[in-house]
Design a protein that fits this description.
By secondary structure, the chain is mainly alpha-helical. It folds into 2 domains: 7-89, Rna Polymerase Sigma Factor, Chain: A (Orthogonal Bundle); 122-188, Arc Repressor Mutant, subunit A (Orthogonal Bundle). Helices cover 77% and strands 2% of the residues. It has 8 helices and 2 strands, in the order H-H-H-H-H-H-H-H-E-E. It has helices spanning 7-28, 34-50, 52-55, 60-120, 124-135, 140-147, 151-169, 177-180; strands at 183-184, 187-188. A two-stranded antiparallel ribbon has the order 1-2. Strand 1 and strand 2 form a beta hairpin. Belongs to the sigma-70 factor family. ECF subfamily. InterPro entries: RNA_pol_sigma-70-like, RNA_pol_sigma-70_dom, RNA_pol_sigma70_r2, RNA_pol_sigma70_r4_t2, RNA_pol_sigma_r2, RNA_pol_sigma_r3/r4-like, WH-like_DNA-bd_sf. Residues 115-165 form the RNA polymerase sigma factor 70 region 4 type domain. This is RNA polymerase sigma factor.
Length: 191
């Protein structure tokens, strides 16, 4: 920054001549309110003081163009910084959503693994019914025909299997009664 004795007076003369028009210009820029416009004018003149050794040698018209260019660049920098902060905030929100999605996924996988472990330990006929209905998405009629049992027996095995899973796995069971209401004859409604 230049430190010659007339620096303050020269900057003051420039400020008095250009600050009002510079403020009006700053107020026309996107996302610039009155307070930001005032700040931009102030930071522009601070930059003028810091670069006065070069700026002071320019004619008044070139000084004016320099001030407008610096103010515009500072406004763009502030806008970019604000965008960067907003994007960082968006990234944080996305990361938080991903963390909650990951947590939900992990808990679902654990519950599903436990459920299939429980199904594997069920009596043979119930295990086959559960597997064919829930994994292969067969209807109770298809399971009954395949296993040579009645559809009522298939539904009974499904209810016993679901009850057993609810006791063992609890609310994380993938085949809960509130979801079970969506199951019709061993198939997901709408399938």
């Amino acid at each position: 920054m230049a430190t010659h004795p007339d620096l303050g007076k020269e900057i003051e003369v420039l400020f008095r001549a250009e600050s009002e028009a510079l403020f009006r210009y700053a107020s026309t820029l996107p996302e610039v309110d009155r307070a930001r416009a005032e700040d931009l004018v102030q930071t522009t003149f601070v930059a003028a003081m810091e670069d006065w050794s070069r700026l002071g040698r320019l004619c008044p018209e070139r000084q004016r163009r320099w001030l407008y260019a610096v103010l515009k660049n500072k406004a763009i920098d502030q806008w970019r910084q604000g965008r960067r902060l907003q994007l960082v905030g968006d990234c944080e929100e996305a990361r938080e959503h991903a963390r909650s999605e990951t947590e939900h996924h992990v808990l679902s996988v654990v519950a599903l693994d436990l459920a299939w472990e429980m199904i594997s330990a069920m009596p043979g006929q119930r295990q086959r019914v559960a597997f064919l209905c829930w994994n292969e998405e067969w209807s109770s009629r298809e399971v009954a025909e395949w296993l040579g049992i009645t559809q009522e027996t298939v539904r009974s095995h499904l209810k016993l299997a679901r009850d057993q899973l609810m006791r063992a796995v609890g609310p994380a069971a993938p085949f809960r009664d509130d979801q079970g209401a969506d199951w019709i004859d061993g198939r997901k409604a709408g399938s």
